[in-house]
Amino acid sequence: MDLGIVGQAAGLFAVTNIDDILILSLFFAQGAGHQGSARRIVIGQYLGFAAILAVAIAAAFGATFLPEPAIPYLGLLPLALGLKAAWQAWKHRDGEDDDKETAEGGPKALEVAAVTFANGGDNIGVYVPVFATAGVGGMSVYAVVFLALVAVWCFAGRYFATRPVIANALSRWGHFLLPLVLIAIGLLILIEGGGFGL
Q1: Coiled coil: which residue ranges (predicted)?
Q2: In this structure, are residues 29 and 161 in contact, taking their beta carbons and an 8 Å threshold?
């Protein structure tokens, strides 16, 4: 295995996914104390990133699943999830928690996957030309390195969410920050892509 391509893959992943660490930290903070939430977040991150990889690989071979004008509307996914999270935060603003919510609460795997995929729309645009020129062997190395680094990103997100200073800040402000970050991501994707004529 060519170490040069491994380094290039690691660098490309880091540059295109640096914002995911913040989002993962917020998800892990939201899931703190909820049974199985860490597992759901990791599964969701892998599902979302696997979808990004699948679309980028298929596009590198010439297949297109989404017409170019439809891509900005992926911003509706994090926007809707952000509004839902904001509603939940407002509904529970008095700090009332049900026992059921403590046991099963936190982010759902499909919500994490949707945010990961929508936030990775720009990643696809970067990955396609790289994959197209890397060939099948190189593309395989990129995919393996990327999937290994998803685990590192999940670990980093959880690590930051459990550091005492960060954890205290996230537990105090996370229920406000997560909706704001998701709404901002959704609006940014819509605006940058020119969705709805923005």
Answers
A1: none
A2: yes
Q: In Å, how far are 101, 130, 149, 169, 176 from 143, measured between CA atoms?
A: 36, 12, 10, 35, 34
Q: Which of 26, 36, 57, 44 lies closest to 150 in space, CA to CA?
A: 44
Q: At 138, phi and psi to the nearest 5? A: -65, -40
Token duo for residue 155: 């670990």
Q: With the C-alpha atoms ordered 5, 139, 125, 148, is the resulting torsion angle positive or negative?
A: negative
Q: What is the pLDDT of residues 171-187, one digit of tens each?
A: 666 667 777 877 887 78
- The predicted-structure confidence for 113-152, as pLDDT tens digits, reads as follows 988 888 887 788 788 888 888 888 889 999 999 999 999 9
Q: What is the 3-state secondary structure (H, E, C) of 48-77?
A: HHHHHHHHHHHHHCCCCCCCHHHHHHHHHH
Helix spans in the chain (H)? 3-31, 37-60, 76-91, 99-104, 109-119, 121-162, 164-193
- pLDDT tens, residue by residue, 20-74: 888 898 888 888 788 889 999 999 999 999 999 998 898 888 755 556 676 677 7
Residue 155 has pLDDT above 90, yes or no: yes
pTM of the model: 0.74
The tokens for 113 are 């996957």
In one-letter notation, the amino acid at residue 20 is D
